[in-house]
Fold:
Amino acid sequence: MRVDSLKRVVAGIVGLGAAVYVGASGYMYAAQESLIFKPDSNVNSIDSVFPGAAEHWIDTPDSERLQLWHRPAQADQPTLIYLHGNAGNLSTRKRLITDLGNDGRGLVIFSWRGYGQSSGTPSEAGMYIDARAVFDWLETRQLPAENLYLYAESLGTGVAAQLGAEREFGGIIFAAPYTSIAAMAKADYPWLPVDSLLNHRFDSIAKIQDITEPMVVMHSEDDAVIPYRFGIELFEAATEPKRLQAYTDRKHTAFTESDIEEALAWLMQPQ
Structure:
């Protein structure tokens, strides 16, 4: 092959590679919302999912409206605030709602903006606003902070890290957490300029040391959605008091009632 022909072949290969790289980067940037947020607007009835709960509508400071279900705690029982993951809505968590609300515990669950019947469009900044609005609503009901506990799963753990760094709680359970969306994206797409593309970072590891409340991290080695190592890295970066509940067979967020009871019992004991 002549030298000039070889140069043209190399240039063509380089050009094709560059086009693929630019195309993949453009797709990642444009599709990130649909990859991170997977809302469902179909809401099951409150009576079929959360018997005894009342429905409320919470107005956020940026004029969105959140659908919230609340069943108050019985005497001397704590209230849990459930921050759900990236898919579905408040009505698609019946099993966990049952487990979290056992023994007379109070429970609050709400749909993020853009999920269920909540207005708006999902975003990292918006989810932080939503969580603050729900916490502020609970304060108007005169629930002491030491009796409030966060249960956050998957994507919701990033919001728990932000809220936990800002507000006071009795404790926090991180179920299948991650260090940051950027770290997970880099692991899956190491050849893309992830830092330049992401609009939603959920940088939990940068906030975890600002949380002073007791925390439990629950993660399973067979989690195929959020790899176990991310939960361990977040746990190791956290300050005391903290507890790791590690499993081998819970997959992604399939924690049992006994797992939850164990975590809550530890959180509510004197630290």
About this structure: Residues 78 and 159 are 21 Å apart (CA to CA). The longest strand covers residues 65-71. Residues 6-21 have pLDDT under 50 and may be disordered. The radius of gyration is 21 Å.
